Amino acid sequence: MNPWLPLLAYSVWTALVLGVAIGCARRGGKRADRQRLTELSPAEYAFVSGGAARAADVCILRLLGAGSLHVSRDGQVVAARAPEPDAVADAPLRVLDEEYGGLPLRELRVRVAASPEIQAIGATLFADGLVARPNAEPRRLPRWALFASIPLGVATAVAGFVTADDGAASALPWVGLLLAVIGIQACVAGLLLLGVFGERVVPTAPMMRRLIRLRRDEAAVAALGADGVGAVALWGLDRFPDPVVKEIFRRNAPAPGSRDPQSPWCGNTSCASPQGARAGSCGGTADGCGG
Amino acid sequence: MRTAVGIGWRPEIDLTIERLAGVDFVEVIAENVCVEHLPESLRVLRARGVEVIPHGVALGLAGADRPDPARLARLAEVAGALESPLVSEHLAFVRAGGLEAGHLLPAPMTWDALDVVVENVRIAQESLPVPLALENPATLLTWPDNEMSEARFLTELVERTGVRLLIDVANLHTERVNHGLDPAAALAELPLEAVEYVHVAGGVERDGLWHDTHAHPVTAPVLEVLEMLCALHRPPRVLLERDTDFPPAGELAAELAAIRAVLTRPAVRS
Q1: Running DSSP on this structure, what letter comes out for residue B101?
Q2: Are the beta carbons of B134 and B157 closer than 8 angstroms?
Q3: Scanning every residue of chain A, which has its alpha carbon at the shortest distance from the alpha carbon of B244?
Q4: Strands (DSSP E) found in B97-194
Q5: Inter-chain residue contact B15 with A73, CB threshold 8 Å
Q6: Is B249's CB within 8 Å of A76's CB?
Q7: What's B242's DSSP letter?
Q8: What pLDDT, in 10s, does the model give residues A29-38?
Q9: Mutual orientation of helices A105-113 and A42-65 as an angle, nearest 10°?
């Protein structure tokens, strides 16, 4: 028998398992409306790049830049004008309109992220085929995928041992192969945990290509929103140029446990967490990018 | 002499105020400042050289009771912590017989009341490390047996105690609407050389009464009273008050610009 055959079979099987799992996770993806790709607002880019939490931050920052909100150094936010009835960008003002004396920034961020206006961004993007998984459980480990490749992995190890037969001389002949299989399984688990399954918002391929192109084009990013709002939409608060406001946002990051289970794009995860932030790019800080 | 232009510092708009151009000084509600934990914004403004004036609302110097030593000590402490050039209070009483009114109530304009206020002001002056300025309040009612005008009362007070004045032109407009006061005559009667600064604020007229809300834009009649005052005597400082319903920063800047425009009018400059 070809000594590489078991390993090859194991690799193909593992790839198949991962592919099916990812495909299931991305269910709901459909043909992208490419025209819409060129018309997205900063809040929509923020939603794709950082979830409802970042879209809320972008809305708040735009209103701050326009002078429609006052934020104090202690993190209290008050409205400076009445909200427009229909404008998505006025979502923070509509939340504040229900309160007397404003709201702490921390609470405002959570409530705006869970607001119908921001949640509707997710629904619209999904309807346009630009994101997938509108109602999937985030960070849920698909256990069947984790265990599906273990039997073949063990069989591969045994076959490899029998074929090579060079571990018999060792005092612990199985240990090396078993460790290899366990290591590979751990990698599979890690991929499942940290990969697309850890994301709340999964861009479809056209959307992802658009994001990559946009992130390389500084002029386009600048045009996306004044005063660094475009950069925040794409990368997170870390790119906001005003250090005082950035520090106020950092100090008033929503608690990781803040959640609104009624909001479909917050689901069982926190609307305050950087849903949609790619694993390893923005980390797990509550303010989007740890800025 | 250039007149400094300032704005009332309120915690909700601290960052907005820090970023408004041309703010020479600010005023803080003294009772809202904790000396042990000075707001970061006030520290930033002080580091920039912006004057901070504590403005008391709870001494009740026009009351029958002597001013509370603890309140005076605290006011002095705030003035010291903020390196303030002066502190200000109201010619009003806020409590009597152990009851807190929660409002600035008008003093009776009588000679007996004047004696009481003179003594209260002297006690306050002795306790404070900086000059004290008293503000004419806005009123919806007056006492029936007043023996003199508010301007005369303030003039007597200045002569007897050397207290400084904070003239609120919005309050003079309030008196005009609510009690038929002639602001020009009142200003002519006042010792304007004692004026340390001037308040300008917005309000609203409802059912024939002017409410000094500090929550509405400054109106032309209020700026007209400011112009009257400035034509008689150029004050060292003018301050915009806004306590709630804060407008966008641009509108606050426009109101400050409107005040500066009054200060640069030919009648005022001469």
Answers
A1: E
A2: yes
A3: A101
A4: 99-106, 132-135, 164-168
A5: yes
A6: no
A7: -
A8: 467 788 888 8
A9: 150
Average of pLDDT values for B3-8? 98
Please report residues of B whose CB lies closer than 8 A to that of A73. 14-15, 39-41
Is the Cβ pair A72, B14 closer than 8 Å? yes
Interface probe, candidates B13, B17, B18, chain A, greatest A C-beta count within 10 A: B13
* Interface predicted TM-score of the whole assembly (ipTM), two decimals: 0.88
Q: Which of B156, B160, B148 is nearest to B191 (CA)?
A: B156
Query: Best of B14, B19, B252 to disrupt the A interface by mutation (most A CBs within 10 Å)?
Result: B14
Residues of B with Cβ-Cβ distance to A66 under 8 angstroms: 248
Q: What is the pLDDT of residues A191-225, one digit of tens each?
A: 666 555 555 677 888 888 899 899 888 888 888 88
CB contact under 8 A, B15 and A81: no
Confidence (pTM): 0.79
Question: Which helix H or strand E contains B86, and what residues bound it?
Answer: none
Is residue B141 within 8 Å of residue B127, measured between CB atoms?
Answer: no
Inter-chain residue contact A78 with B13, CB threshold 8 Å: yes
- The span from the CA of B178 to the CA of B216, in Å, is 18
Residues A39-74 pLDDT 10s = 999 999 999 998 899 999 999 999 999 999 999 999
* Tokens of residue A218, six digits: 């500084």
Instruction: Show which residues on chain B lie within 8 Å of chain A, measured between beta carbons.
Output: 11-16, 39-41, 246-251
Which among A228, A226, A224, A252 has a CA at the least distance from the CA of A238? A228
CB atoms within 10 A of CB A218: 11
Segment B248-257 mean pLDDT: 96
Asked if B11's CB is within 8 angstroms of A76's CB, the reply is: yes
Question: How far is C-alpha A114 from the chain's CA centre?
Answer: 16
- Do A216 and A52 touch, CB atoms closer than 8 A? no
Query: Kind and range of the H or E element at A76?
Result: strand A76-79
Least confident stretch, A98-107, A152-161, B45-54, B106-115: A152-161
Question: Is there a contact between A239 and A228 (Cβ–Cβ < 8 Å)?
Answer: yes
The per-residue pLDDT for range B138-180, each reduced to its tens digit, is 999 999 999 999 999 999 999 999 999 999 999 999 999 999 9
Contact between chains at A74 and B11 (C-beta distance less than 8 A): yes
Q: Report residue B54 as tokens.
A: 């504590």
Question: Token pair 């991305």 is at which residue?
Answer: A26
